[in-house]
């Protein structure tokens, strides 16, 4: 079965499945749907859609978002990223430039008397 758009394929899933909580033997509840949950998170993050637009096949968006937030606070995602980036066989790393933002005033340069900003004259 081929992976759908934005979802992990078998090789990718096998690399991270052991790093995620909810395995048999872990304290607490055993997660039967870790892969579905991770694919849902990837769908939102890769598509740029709002959580409320998450397709129903991944579950209720509030539940998925709540679990995503819990994993963020517990450091689960950081452990996964650390393990993946520590792998010397990793073929590429990339950063999504849409998350790199400058402050809104960074585009206006050094200010001073008589500089027009936001449609009004700025005065000292």
From TrEMBL:
NCBIfam families: transpos_IS5_3. PANTHER family: BLL5188 PROTEIN, TIS1421-TRANSPOSASE PROTEIN A. It comes from the Bacteria. Residues 8-81 form the Insertion element IS402-like domain. It holds the Pfam family DUF4096. This is Insertion element IS402-like domain-containing protein.
